Amino acid sequence: MLIRPDEMPEIEEPSNDLVMRRLVDAETGDGDLSVTWVRLAGRHRRLRTDRSTRVYYVLEGEGRFVVGGEPEAEARTGDVIVVPRGVAYALAGDLTYLVVNGPAFQSGDDVYE
User: Fold this and answer.
1) What is the pTM of this model?
2) Which of 70, 26, 18 is nearest to 45 (CA)?
């Protein structure tokens, strides 16, 4: 299956300063994983998910991630950030990234703190 991000609809989420495109969801990924393209320009609210481990791959730009009680980490193009399920985290910056959820993201998975 070929997926072209520029052919997927943009979804705006002003409360988290981002625009996203869902590339693989629970249906197309058989529930095993989901992949979302995201453009963040600002600050994403602190959150956690108790269902999935999340992997962020920075496509371009720079940002800051705070995962659990770890010190703030500066992330840039090519970096990977792993957020274990159940661990609260926050991010901010001007960056484009892919976020992979395993198992796949489902509506209601994000718990904002």
Assistant:
1) 0.94
2) 18
